[in-house]
Specification:
The protein has 460 residues and is of the alpha+beta class. It has 4 domains: 170 residues, no CATH class; 31 residues, no CATH class; 121 residues, CBS-domain; 104 residues, Uridine Diphospho-n-acetylenolpyruvylglucosamine Reductase, domain 3 (2-Layer Sandwich), CATH 3.30.465. Helices cover 53% and strands 14% of the residues. A hairpin with a 2-residue loop joins strand 8 and strand 9. Helix 1 runs parallel beside helix 5 and helix 4 crosses helix 6.
Length: 460
């Protein structure tokens, strides 16, 4: 009779451990499922299991409360059944090694507790957890029916527990939710993209475009624009012939039209406007008559708003104004696209001369107009905060004067970390050697990594 009871107790322990596994599995499967995935499968006609998963996923708070109750009850019951039975098997073995009857009973119960806990943890929790994390949808389809039967039978008690827990949570100033948030922040999406690249789901170029798109909303018009010093413009008193000549020499098609300087911009003209004027009149027709109004936006406008304004502008060009009302730069649809996709060139561009980064061994020739965030992405150099946005501005601030060709300076210590993946292969200090000036602006500089042992000597 004792043997029969022991066998029943062991079978009961196995059944209770399996039940614990069901509750653990539904907990991890439900929290690991995306709402979009659940809804997509629930739309299949006649798939009752998928519809049951969708129903429970929409009532997640109740389902998880039931799972917690089930785990608690089955774990306690399994321990209650297993410990005495396993203790009976350990007691004779402990007697055989010379322990007294009282000591054998105590030690046997301790060993039984350890073995029962180990079996319950491994087969009742860890194994189903790993399966649910790996295959959340298939696991949910399997475990939802039996768990739902348990939750239905004890629905009144689960709801009472849930209401009690919600009351405590509200007292803490938090509003409970019945569903997991399906939305993701840009940071979370960026992390998902990086993980997808590491797993081989995305290639690096696709990931780079997605990452740029996610970060685009945090950029400003100042970061996207072509700066004032690089804008090719025409005067309102210039003629259509001047427009054709400038378009031929620069390869550009759109130009701001000003009265004197860019702070008094009257509009924008397109080279196509020249074809609307008879050839005989091109030397006498003034551009002030052809210029179309151009929108003006503040330099602090975010990237998404900039894109909308450029797209809605009839000329696909907007001017960027600084806080004093002066013209700070110009944004074209090409600037916005390059911010999202990276630099691209057409048949009129000189790739070599317009390339912002060119590598020569361990050194890099970098445009002075490169933004410091781009410098961080490519070379892993993070500049200290300061009144500058470009490499040229950083060099000028470090020198404390206008740079000249031949100036060499040790760039100041970075105040933030460095990228885990960077093209330069260097995570230390850099020297900047000014090689080309455009009037008072740094046009090109060669950046060279400095070994840590040479930093003190370079900084003297």
């Amino acid at each position: 009779m004792d043997i029969f009871i022991s066998i029943l107790s062991l079978l009961g322990f196995i059944a209770l451990t399996a039940s614990t596994g069901l509750f653990v599995a539904i907990e991890f499967a439900m929290t690991g499922l995306e709402r979009s995935t659940v809804d997509a499968h629930a739309r299949d006609v006649g798939d009752r299991a998928a519809k049951a998963v969708a129903r429970d996923h929409a009532n997640l708070s109740f389902v998880l409360s039931g799972a917690q109750l089930g785990i608690t009850v089955t774990t306690l019951a399994a321990g209650f059944l297993a410990e005495p039975v396993l203790g009976k098997y350990f007691t004779p073995l402990l007697h055989a090694v010379g322990l007294s009857e009282g000591a054998s009973t105590s030690v046997a119960l301790i060993l039984a507790l350890l073995v029962a806990t180990f079996l319950s943890m491994v087969f009742g929790e860890l194994v189903p957890k790993n399966i649910a994390i790996t295959e959340p949808l298939h696991t949910a389809r399997f475990v939802v029916p039996p768990v739902n039967a348990f939750n239905t039978a004890l629905a009144w008690f689960i709801r009472a527990l849930n209401r009690s827990a919600n009351w405590v949570v509200r007292k803490l100033g938090i509003e409970p939710a019945d569903e997991l948030a399906s939305a993701r922040s840009a940071q979370e999406l960026g992390a998902m993209v990086r993980n997808s690249v590491e797993a081989g789901s995305f290639d690096a170029e696709t990931a780079r475009v997605i990452d740029r798109s996610l970060q685009f909303g945090d950029t400003t018009a100042e970061e996207v624009m072509t700066p004032r010093s690089r804008i090719e413009s025409l005067d309102a008193g210039d003629t259509v012939a001047d427009l054709i000549d400038l378009a031929r020499s620069t390869g550009h098609s759109r130009f701001p039209v000003r009265r004197g300087d860019l702070d008094d911009t009257v509009g924008v003209v397109h080279v196509k406007d020249a074809f609307s004027v008879d050839k005989a009149q091109r030397c006498s027709t003034l551009l002030g008559e052809l210029a179309r109004p151009v929108p003006v936006i503040p330099g602090t406008l975010d990237g998404d708003a900039v894109l909308n304004r450029v797209r809605s502008a009839g000329s696909q060009v907007v001017l960027v104004a600084d806080e004093y009302g002066g013209t700070q730069g110009l944004v074209t649809i090409e600037d916005v696209v390059e911010e999202l996709l990276g630099e691209f060139y057409d048949e009129y561009d000189d790739r070599e001369s317009e390339r912002d980064f060119q590598r020569f061994g361990s050194s890099w020739e970098v445009s002075g107009l490169v933004r410091l965030d781009e410098l961080g992405e490519r070379l892993s150099y993070t500049a200290p905060d300061g009144p500058y946005e470009t490499l040229g501005g950083l060099i000028m601030a470090t020198l404390g004067r206008l740079p000249s060709v031949g100036d060499k300076v040790l760039l100041p210590e970075a105040d933030g970390g460095f990228q885990e993946h960077f093209e330069s292969g260097n995570a230390g200090r850099w020297t900047a050697h000014v090689t080309v000036m455009d009037d008072r602006r740094v046009d090109k500089a060669i950046l060279t990594p400095v070994p840590a042992t040479d930093v003190k000597e370079q900084g003297r």
